[in-house]
Amino acid sequence: MATKSKLTINVEYFALRFMCMVVNAIPYSKAMRIAEWLGAFLVNRVGLHRKRTEARIRSVFPEKSDAEVRRIAIGSLVNLLKNIIEMIRAPKLTREWMDKHVKDGLEYKKKLQSYVDEGRGVVIMVPHSGNWYMAAWSMAKYGLPLFAIAAKQRNPKITAWMNKMYLDIEVLERDERDTLVKIKRNLQSGRAFAILPDLRVMKKDVEVDFLNGKANVSRAGAMFAIKCSCPIVVAIMSREGDKHVFNHLATLRPEGKTAEELMKETLSLLDSEIKKRPEDWFWYNKRWILEPVKE
């Protein structure tokens, strides 16, 4: 990974902190309304990645009209902007805030805790849909012993800022030499491992049918579930107005299954749900999941 100059690092970090100051000064409900206006403006007037994004949407929904495709594109960008606002405000997200904005969050935490209490840990797979960060923040705020992995940013100051936003979640650096050992140790000690299974991996791994195409996904999460004999929870956090709602899709048990079978089952479940609420899905992902993988 190429390093940035000291000037670039400081300018980027200053811009980030200035944006944080502005966002935190605006009441939450008003910030959400601004995100809705800004998302529509950026798609309709500025045309931000509109051609590429709408082409992706049409490849999955060829039957939808141009107006429906545009609505999904706007909804997806609005959702992303709302996620950014909530990440900036993350240090202020108390348990009382979760009670107000996460529907039945404590009840879902108890469900996940029941798997943790089996003593073998649990792998929680949540896709880039709705606010995937909120799924982890809320469960950690309710006391679930949660950990995750994250990649370093090119700007070390932004990496440090993002690590603070994870709140009560232990974050392991993706490329550290002992990360895999730490993941296995944490699961075996009875903790919950939150992972995003839908990012395209650069090397060929498990090919799955997804969004009317082929996706190449990592089997890592499933492998940990098999090695630690722990269940895989597949869930999506959706938005309903300004509330966040857990949609529990399935609890998969690894006994008698291969990692490839578990990943195909997981992505099949996510595929069905994303197609039901496509405006919640992250269509703007730079590394598009359906792009062919180079040999």
Key features of this structure:
295 residues, alpha/beta, seven-stranded mixed sheet, two-stranded antiparallel ribbon, 11 helices, 9 strands, 52% helix, 16% strand
Could you write a compact summary of the structure shown?
52% of the residues lie in helices and 16% in strands. With 295 residues, it is of the alpha/beta class.
Structure description:
The chain has 295 residues and is α/β, with parallel strands linked by helices. Helix content is 52%, strand content 16%. The chain contains 11 helices and 9 strands. The strands form 2 sheets. Strands 1-9-8-2-5-3-4 form a 7-stranded mixed sheet, with helices on both faces. A two-stranded antiparallel sheet has the order 6-7. A hairpin with a 2-residue loop joins strand 8 (232-240) and strand 9 (243-252). Helix 2 (28-46) packs across helix 4 (66-88), helix 3 crosses helix 4 (66-88) and helix 10 crosses helix 11 (259-276). It is globular and about 55 Å long. The mean pLDDT is 93.
